[in-house]
Write a structure and sequence with these properties.
Elements lengths: L1 E7 L10 H10 L3 E6 L4 E6 L3 H16 L5 E4 L1 H9 L13 E6 L5 H9 L6 E5 L2 E5 L13 H5 L3 E5 H16 L1
Antiparallel strand pairs: 1-3, 1-4, 2-3, 5-7, 5-8, 6-7
Amino acid sequence: MTVYIVLFRAIGGANQLPVQTLKEALSDAGFGNVTTYIQTGNVVLSSDLDPQAMLEKVGTVVEERFGKPQKIIARDPRQWSEIIEANPFPDAVIDPKALHVFVLEAEPSPEAVKVLVSRQVDRERVAVVGSAAYLHTPDGAGISKLAKSVERLLKVPATARNWNTMRKLQEMAEKVAAG
């Protein structure tokens, strides 16, 4: 069985997925070790399906159970650890709510990365490493214009998590993998 960290895009506000119901639906569908973290679309589960088949099955379960399709991005624990280790702003982890990782569906083009980097303002920093974009917003993500446009500028579907959430999901996935 492979452990996956499954991220739902644009969850929150009016687009909530009740975590207990989500957990039950995924367990009923045959996924193992289903755990959730906070109300923003974070699931750790195990499956014998390959990544694409797992994503399709999760998507079908969620659409059938909640009546709306969801964009889903997933990584296995090794890929997740690589994202964490590649953090180009290690000094930013002292304020983990100001460091955000956009997990990208695929690697963006070099041209799109150049456009994104050219939009940095004030004290914000952004970098793309593989299929992850790192955004440090020391003045707060809520006022960051760049935070709202990362996905649009990179032209790749993405979902963002702050550093606390990234580390917590890593911990959860390691625990499931360890059995």
